[in-house]
Amino acid sequence: MPSPDTVLAGLTAIANDWRWLAISWHALLAAVLVTVLAGWQPTTRSLGYLLVAPLLSVSLVASLTGNPFNGTAFGILVAVLVASAVRLPQAAVRVASSPWVAFGVGLVVFGWTYPHFVSTDSWTTYVYASPFGILPCPTLSVVIGITLLFPDLRTRSWTTSLAGAGLLYGAIGVFRLGVVLDWGLLLASATLAAATGREVTRWRSVRANRAERSRPLPGDSLIRTPLGTLTHAITIGGAPQDVWPWLIQMGAGSRAGWYSYDFLDNGRRPSATDLVPELQNIAIGTVFPALPAVTEGFIVLAFEPYRSLIIGWPSPGGEPLVTWAFVLEGRVDDSTRLIVRARGAQGYRFHGLPLWISKPLARLVHFLMQRKQLLGIARRVESREREPRREGLMSVITLNNLAVQGHVSRGFEAVRVAFEENFARRHELGGACCAYVRGEKVVDLWGGIRNKKTGEPWEQDTMVVVHSATKGLAAMTLAIAHSRGWLDYEERVATYWPEFAQNGKQDVTVRELLAHQAGLFAFDEPVDRSVVADLDRLAAVMARHKPAWEPGTRQAYHGLTLGFYEGELLRRVDPRHRTLGQFFQDEIATPLGEDFYIRLPEDIPNARLATLSPPGMIKMLIGFRPVRLLIEGLNRRSNISRALVVNPGTSIYLEEPRVYARNLEVPAGGGVGTARAMAHAYSVFATGGGELGLRKETLDLLAAPAVPPICGFYDECLKGEVQFSLGFMKPCDNWRFGSARSFGSPGTGGALGFADPDAGIGYGYVTSRMGTVFTGDPRDVALRDALYSALRSRQELPRAPERMAS
């Protein structure tokens, strides 16, 4: 065995002779980092493959330079990690909590700048030429650091392999070679190993107790005189509503087969690692194939969501040959006892074998396959991160605090699953979702907590500010004015408001103003709360406002100013000269019986209001999308900062300790209400408008394509193409929702409301935890995907009464 000095000399030679390769790896890693910051969200699996590449490079360099130990060791490590990467989920990567992020970033920087072995007189050389990608310790440090950053990478096989390699090479570096730096790798590897050790699954019994084997279960009556009965059971660390989605994801369509819960059968299918909304809709007669790629199989004979599922193999005589009953029993500690019973009829023979072989063989095969299935369900349920972190008076949120309440209609259970997944996987804190289809309320869900400091739960009537989602509701008031003949979208604003014609605004049409094409996105004189509260002073400021460019030529998001202009325009055309907030209350909220305010009154108690939980600085820097908009927002002189952050800025409608400002109208961002109210209002607009007296002509204009300004839809504030029309946002490539004729408005942090006339959908989603993805919050996207998936499947399902969600 070579001496430590010989080994160190060899590593130093490699670090200097192969410096060009190290520089290339630094450049590649930097390019990947820039791409991620620019908006690319790799899947966990693709990130796993990327991380294997520098480890393979270490193996090849070692082999080429006469170091068979490192070459072989890293070659084996690469093979193991590739096998692990194949099983990683295809979902977009998630960022870990702040402590893991801090530790992971520190470790990546440590490996990136590893100050050893390179011959140089300047420390800056290590920034771009440290031996990352060519020597073991810095390379392992970077890969382990990235593994700590993204929790979905931390599967048992991936982390065990990495931690083992890190401990081995860290120990060699510290204790044999005397490289003090490698204590950092040892610490990181030990941390990863400890985290992995906690997740190692111990042997778990699937044996049912005597009472479970002897007592009757649902489905027993389907085979009155069975040839044999086999019962197994397992205790799963999750409530029945957490177990049910994985149970029903065994069967039909693209499901691999109800036994298929491991790599050999189902590892490459999305349903092996993630809940798939399309697979959550079942009905009597749904086929559950027993093996991958088989179209026939067991059929659903009966089910009660979150309690029981009965499937069976049909026979020509009517009575099933085999039945499987799955029973879920909740326990006081929020765990679930899942009991499974298989019963075979007298005529059943395992693959046609004689009875004396068929019976014992069926028992053996059933035990092996049933064990695999039960453990597969348990692992998936228990791997969900059920408890989001929070600060304040209470350090732990129990599952009961996060309980989802409300209802979904039959066929829309997938939306409830997606809503629960928001808490389990997408860090939801508190929120609500509601959807109407053809005038019928099919989804009405709420859950989580409304106040992070006190832990108070989100109730049925909890309201929250929806930021720019208010714009859509404000635009509804002008649509009513249009339907009543008070307003023409093609007419000049100055026709209704003569003072508006100052400073080159005389030809601005109502359509151009409502489409953010008037160049009035930021006030050019001071506007504070006192000005906003005095509508006559505010009107004078707006009348003097000079456009940033010729109106109708370019588009710039009027983040706050749009609502003020809409409010004054409505005051001018309304025969009673009501404010926009009062008009909305009189003509929309009150007739529909819903809780939503564009002017929050004094008598609304704080106990009904959810407090906002903004993202932390690290989360903003790492997770905000698109990054170019984040960079613009950091510049207080940029268009988006002038439109949203300053003069007066969105903070104008927030007020401690009263949560939100009272008796103040900010129609472009200060609306406070429920998801139910938003969905109901949009439902009326999506289904003919009869309840609000809307004319077909008005609704056709709202559903029509947006009209671009002369220079196109590129937005000078949002730095991308976005389409607006008549006060609403329209679907486009950068912001997809509903169908092409839909119209609505998203809000900063994740809220969204929209109408889809083609599907007859009115939709609303609200949240108190502000997200960081501007072009479609993952929580909202998951809900909408599940809603439309359920809608596509609904025609195949029998109608049934609504099912309670809790």
Structural account:
By secondary structure, the chain is an alpha+beta fold. 40% of the residues lie in helices and 12% in strands. It contains 27 helices and 20 strands. The chain has a 7-stranded antiparallel β-sheet with strand order 17-18-19-8-9-7-20, sandwiched between helices. Strands 1-6-5-4-3-2 form a 6-stranded antiparallel β-sheet, with helices on one face. Strands 10-12-11 form a 3-stranded antiparallel β-sheet. Strand 15 and strand 16 form a beta hairpin. Helix 5 runs antiparallel to helix 7, helix 7 packs across helix 9 and helix 11 crosses helix 13. It starts with a helix and ends with a strand. The C terminus is likely disordered.
Major sheet details: 7 strands, antiparallel
Apparent shape: flat
| Major sheet: arrangement of strands | 17-18-19-8-9-7-20
Q: How many β-strands, per DSSP?
A: 20
| End-to-end gap | 66 Å
Point out poorly predicted stretches.
251-267, 385-401, 796-806
Average pLDDT over all residues: 84
Give the proportion of residues in helices: 40-55%
